[in-house]
Specification:
about 80 residues; single chain; four-stranded mixed β-sheet; transport; cytoplasm; alpha+beta; Glutaredoxin; about 40% helix
Length: about 80
């Protein structure tokens, strides 16, 4: 199973939605809460190509995007193959 990293903030509803989708697919992930670890925010922005909003999601180091991007990838049928790799 690929490694999944999600940068979040605790009060972010989109972060919760993204995590819910991953959990529904039984995907384990590393969560980095930039509210608790503010020094990781710069890391997230750099990895996400300048995007500053949360969540930012990475599958095997590949930037997927935010919550809407994750759900769009799932609707298009592209998420499951990425998670099965």
């Amino acid at each position: 199973m690929p490694s999944v990293t999600i940068y979040t903030r605790s009060a972010c509803p989109y972060c919760h939605m993204a995590k819910d989708l991953l959990e529904a697919k039984s995907v384990s992930f590393e969560e980095i809460d930039i509210g608790r670890e503010p020094d990781r925010r710069c890391e997230m922005i750099e990895r996400a190509g300048g995007r500053m909003t949360v969540p930012q999601i990475f599958i095997d180091g590949r930037h997927v995007g935010g919550c809407d991007d994750l759900y769009a990838l799932d609707r298009s049928g592209g998420l499951d193959p990425m998670l099965a790799a």
